[in-house]
Design brief:
The structure holds two protein chains of two kinds.
Chain A lengths: L1 H15 L4 E5 L5 E4 L1 H7 L3 H4 L14 H13 L4 E8 L5 E12 L5 E10 L1 H36 L8 H32 L7 E3 L1 H18 L3 E6 L6 E3 L1 H17 L6 E9 L2 E8 L20 H6 L7 H12 L2 E7 L3 E9 L14
Parallel strand pairs in A: 7-9
Antiparallel strand pairs in A: 1-2, 1-5, 3-4, 4-5, 6-8, 9-10, 10-12, 11-12
Helix pairs in contact in A: 5-6, 6-10, 7-8, 8-10
Chain B lengths: L4 E6 L3 H13 L2 E6 L2 H10 L5 E4 L9 H9 L9 E5 L4 H10 L3 E4 L5 H15 L1
Parallel strand pairs in B: 1-2, 1-3, 3-4, 4-5
Helix pairs in contact in B: 3-4
């Protein structure tokens, strides 16, 4: 008995003094216990929070859908909820917290308590933001020298400064191509930082998606011909005009198609299909290329991730394309999935609601 | 090739300004250049007819391309001159501000070839002739 009491005391002391904010509630979320960090982080003492719904004092109001998802996870599905949330201390200071709530079940699988753990991650968020802003700033600065190289190389290649020898033209073309790659990389980095900072805007206009697709194909025409790729497009006749942000839609096509062309060997196949499926517009890009290894398929949308097989055969990719597509779709109501087999090819399915993308104002923090 | 078209180029980076000037001259433009807003406005006042303006956003001095465009658009004599913005910054709020002021086109510098932009300028000049 003494041992048990010792154990209980040990656990209580551990929880009381843990470095994260820990709250225990009843099945309705009413606070039964809070440790010392609750007061330290939120500014509310235990007497103020006991008997109230957890978080009601310090939570910044979130939309209904957030709470519905939270309660569905912990109460109905009896699973652990993990997320990030915005809170306000008693002194009105805002902070961001990572939050995890675990249901505690009795032997009949009934929820008897919830244990909520929160950690103040404001500082981490600030550092992450500073990093993203740095990338954005550096990328902007790079554009001036890139333009200088671009435009002078263009003029030399055009013969504006006199005719060059074939060998000179060839070397200059390499400089020009290398510079184009750098421009593409800078553009991708800027897109990533805009997506991460939330400074990008979504400006939907009534647009023909087939026109955007054709434009993206046009940009790749040279590469398709160079690799002798058997490229086919098929647009169904019933595709309506949609409210789309042209730039974002273009980025989706550019990345999907350039991946397909890049990772398909000479004389391989690339197909683009557009059609209506239920309430969505469906884009399918299929190739007979390298494919994605089974064991790495779950990482394919991670930032900077490149699968082993493409890293070994191609040096051009950045690991940003699919990450950017996914981030755009997450922000505009679209979805992406794929089927892929190594050395057979990949098939990407993208859906965009026919209702179109929703308008989103960009913030004005960055240039 | 049409002749005697005058273009005002407002760009602070000298190497870029030179490239733009060379290419435009080859395409039959008389080119006047400026590196800040004041110079550009002086040119507009001095030269009898400027047919088209090419401007960057960030310039020497405090004022930006936005200040320049809003001044130009406020002058009866100048407000119909077509304006092409060719800039490194393509943030949506900037593009929107320029479009709202009535510029004709907005280009991200590093994404476009000189001959592409010049062909667009030709097209617009052709239209208003």
């Amino acid at each position: 008995m003494q041992n048990l009491a010792n154990d209980l005391e040990k656990f209580k002391l551990a929880v009381d003094n843990a470095s994260d904010h820990i709250v225990i509630t009843d099945p309705d979320g009413i606070v039964l216990y809070g440790n010392k960090m609750v007061e330290k982080i939120t500014g509310y003492n235990l007497n103020e929070s006991l008997g109230k719904k957890a978080g009601v004092l310090w939570r910044k109001p979130m939309d209904q859908a957030y709470y519905e998802k939270l309660w569905e996870t912990i109460k109905k599905n009896k699973k652990i909820y993990v997320g990030e949330i915005k809170n306000v201390r008693k002194n009105k200071e805002e902070y961001e917290a990572s939050i995890s709530i675990a249901p505690v079940l009795d032997n009949k699988n009934k929820v008897i308590y919830f244990v909520g753990i929160e950690r103040d991650i404001t500082r981490e968020k600030e550092i992450d933001k500073a990093k993203t802003e740095f990338v954005s700033l550096a990328s902007h600065q790079l554009r001036t020298p890139l333009s200088t190289i671009n435009w002078y190389a263009e003029m030399l290649l055009n013969g504006d400064a006199g005719k060059m020898k074939a060998e000179q033209v060839q070397y200059l073309q390499e400089i020009y191509k290398g510079n184009q790659r750098m421009v593409d990389l800078v553009n991708s980095l800027l897109n990533v930082s805009r997506l991460e900072l939330g400074t990008f805007s979504v400006e939907p206009k009534m647009t023909s998606i087939t026109k955007i697709a054709d434009e993206a194909i046009g940009e790749l025409k040279h590469k398709i011909e160079e690799k002798n790729i058997n490229f086919k497009k098929e647009y169904k006749l019933n595709i309506p005009e949609m409210m789309l942000d042209e730039k974002l839609t273009m980025i989706i096509f550019q990345n999907l198609l350039s991946n397909a062309v890049k990772y398909t060997s000479e004389k391989g196949k690339v197909n683009l299909n557009l059609g209506v499926k239920g309430k969505d517009l469906e884009i399918i890009v299929a190739d007979s290329g390298l494919g994605i290894p089974k064991k790495q398929q779950d990482k394919i949308f991670d930032k900077l991730f490149r699968a082993d097989n493409v890293r070994q055969t191609d040096t051009e990719g950045t690991g940003l394309g699919l990450y950017i597509i996914k981030a755009i779709l997450d922000n505009t109501g679209g979805k992406i999935r794929f089927e892929s087999e190594e050395n057979k090819g990949s098939k990407f399915y993208i859906t965009l609601p026919l209702g179109g993308m929703k308008q989103k104002e960009g913030t004005k923090k960055l240039n | 090739m049409p002749i005697n078209r005058t273009i005002l180029v407002l760009e602070d980076e000298v190497p870029l300004q030179n490239a733009i000037k060379l290419k435009l001259s080859k395409n039959g433009f008389d080119v006047v250049t400026a590196r800040n807003v004041e110079q550009a406005l002086n040119h507009l006042a001095d030269i009898e007819k400027v047919d088209v303006i090419w401007a960057d956003h960030y310039l020497l001095g405090q004022e930006t391309g936005l200040d320049f465009v809003s001044k130009v658009k406020n002058f009866e004599k100048w407000k119909n001159i077509p304006i092409f913005i060719v800039s490194n910054t393509a943030s949506p709020d900037k593009v929107q501000s320029y479009m709202a002021l009535g510029v004709d086109k907005y280009y991200t510098k590093s994404d476009f070839r000189l001959d592409t932009i010049i062909a667009e300028i030709d097209k617009i000049l052709e239209k208003i002739k």
